[in-house]
Amino acid sequence: MNDQDIVALYFDRNEQAITETDKKYGNLCMQVSMNVLDSKPDAEECVSDTYLKTWNSIPPTRPNSLCAFVCKIARNLSLNRLRDLRREKRNRELTVSLEELEACISMPDESKNELSHLLTAFLDGQGETDRVLFVGRYWLHCSVSDLAKRMGLTQNAVSLRLHKTREKLRVYLEERGYRV
Amino acid sequence: MTRGNIMEAMNGIGDYLIVEAAEKLGFLNGSAAIVKGRKAKGPSAFSRFMNSGWGVAAVCALVAVSVMGGIIWAGHQPGKNPPVVTPEETTAPFEIESENEDYIGEDQTEVMIRHGNKAIYPRKFFMWSGSADGFGFEETIRQVKIGTPILPRVYYAKDESISPCELTLPKNGSLRGVSFYDDDMNETAIAYDGEFHYESFLKDLPVGRHHVCLYIEYTEDGKAVSGADYAFTVVVTEKAEEVTKTEAITETETETSQPTDLRYFQFPLVNAKDTTSYISLPDMTAEGEQAIEFFVVPSDTETPELTSAYKIHVSKDFPMNIQLVVIKSKEGEGACILYRMEKAQPDEYDMIEADGTVVLECCVLDFDRTAEYGYYSRYYSSNDPNWGDYRFTYVNGTKVSMAKHRNNLRYLEYAEYFIRSNGYDDPEKYEYTVLYSYIDGVETVNTPSETLPEFPCTIFNAYNEPDMGN
């Protein structure tokens, strides 16, 4: 079933929408949540919450991309969940991936939207592999080893590609007035 | 800034980027991850090439101008970008991709390996800057894997009769990545960012041949502006005398070939029993016309045989590297010698100016395998930065045919074989003759041999007439 049909089910308040969403994007949501939380029970809970939030959001929202929509919900819920859990534990992969980015991104709070646009523009200019690796690492929070496996690259190659992309991003942002 | 800021900023990136990544990484139900092929099973072509011995008398033909197969110099039509080549099967031993191939011909100081007063330049594969994407390390490894025979070679004897060589980095370059590979191109070690001590590492290397890939990052005002990949080979022995004859000769001759009194330079003899010889003359800076002679030693007579002589023009700004490769051919079909001279400029590779008129490049043959060999290099021209895509792939040492090698054409959707002549720095004078051109493995151009320039030739034909189009 395509996304438009699934969204139509949501608008019709047909609970089949959740089944179809799970069928199509359940794996993605679970993966994102697992990457953030590193805990299957917590991730499953977040995925369930994702469907509930999606159900409550559509309508009135009509997402351009259902995939990105549910994925963002899953990610945000997972990050919120992580904050709750942080007192008890730390997710190493997430911490590491954020630390990597901190080295090349610095901004005042009010510039978040602008930075998002810049990030998008920057990523648009990258090669597909580098773009996928970057988003996979810093949005989906995949581990380097997981990225390497999925992309058929060595971990070394993934690390170096990410390093190069971060360096390019740093230069890119500096040229646009961001302190690095 | 806080991590919350970062996450929120990342959260705002375009939806399509998320969808793309999820899809390509195989997160969507039903979608498959991109699994780009890795090395083929079993010994690599490179390994077998490096290890194979001579079985037949060495024959070298350097002057025959013929389109009847042999090694055909291949390249790319100026101003025309090659199409993207996508492996047909995800299990391809390696990938070829052609996106974002804008190379930067910056005038960077080179990485150098020093043996005393000798300087050897690691072969640079790729370079990129903040304004251009590059293949990077991965591609360098791939190039090594597919059998580029011209990695500069250095030697180290564990009894220190041959001392560890010194790796000299440019002032504005820092070592950001090092990987070691064995002959089968299995990664044996990785080191990064200052934790890697070249000499001490050499001492710990087991006896044998190790292929080293370096990733150098260049900085300006303390900021990284570009990077480049370099590769070379380290041969480690217990004692100096264990270095093979060819290697020793190469070593000795390299050492004694000083440019100061060099007007006429003669290559050292090459032991044809060995598969590869490598000669690097990075200090060959004597300006003006110089002569080069090529010799081979037939395995049955051990008598040197002059095979060809060329004149080259060396300008003070462009010292030449000269590399000579002897390659074993199929049993009973003779052997051939390839040579390669390259300008030691950072942005000039794989190019030869012989007699001031021709650009040559050596290539690799593997007669035992099919379509495993490709050679891909790039070249910059200050006049036309769009020049420079060369892709030539050989199957059984000659051009491929779609019908016969269909299953092995994963990397050969495009190939162009051609002869170059005249000055490559001047597009107006640049002439080339396309011999064969393939798109999707189908021959699209076949120029009659009579249209080819007579001299200098860029074809070595030292074995039987190749399989043409079967």
Explain the overall architecture:
Chain A is mainly α and 180 residues long. Chain A is built from 9 helices and no strands. Chain A has helices spanning 3-11, 16-37, 40-57, 66-86, 92-102, 112-124, 128-138, 144-151, 155-175. In chain A, helix 1 packs across helix 2. The longest helix of chain A has 22 residues, at 16-37. Chain A is globular. The termini of chain A are far apart. The model of chain A is unreliable at 87-92 (pLDDT under 50). The model of chain B is unreliable at 30-109, 129-136, 146-150, 244-286, 289-313 and 315-470 (pLDDT under 50). Chain B has helices at 3-11, 15-24, 45-51, 137-145, 198-204, 245-256, 402-405; strands spanning 71-72, 112-115, 118-120, 123-129, 153-157, 166-168, 173-181, 187-191, 208-220, 223-237, 264-266, 288-296, 305-314, 320-328, 335-343, 373-378, 389-394, 414-421, 431-439, 442-446, 459-460. Chain B is of the alpha+beta class and 470 residues long. Chain B is built from 7 helices and 21 strands. In chain B, strand 12 and strand 13 (305-314) form a beta hairpin.
Give a brief rundown of this model.
With 180 residues, chain A is mainly α. Chain A has helices spanning 3-11, 16-37, 40-57, 66-86, 92-102, 112-124, 128-138, 144-151, 155-175. In chain A, helix 1 (3-11) packs across helix 2 (16-37), helix 3 packs across helix 4 and helix 7 (128-138) packs across helix 9.
Shape of chain B: globular
- The helix fraction of chain B, in percent, is 10-25%
- Major sheet attributes of chain B: 6 strands, mixed
Which stretches of chain B of 5+ consecutive residues score pLDDT under 50? 30-109, 129-136, 146-150, 244-286, 289-313, 315-470
Chain-averaged pLDDT of chain B: 43
Helix-strand topology string of chain A:
HHHHHHHHH
Cα-to-Cα separation, first versus last residue of chain A:
45 Å
Q: How many DSSP H or I helices of chain A? A: 9
| Oligomeric state of shown chains | heterodimer
Strand portion of chain B, in percent?
25-35%
* Total helical elements of chain B: 7
Mean pLDDT of chain A: 78
Helix and strand pattern of chain B: HHHEEEEHEEEEHEEHEEEEEEEHEEEE
Unreliable residue runs of chain A: 87-92
| Bulk shape of chain A | globular
Q: Hey, which two chains have the biggest interface? A: A-B, 65 and 56 residues
Rg from alpha-carbon coordinates of chain B: 22 Å
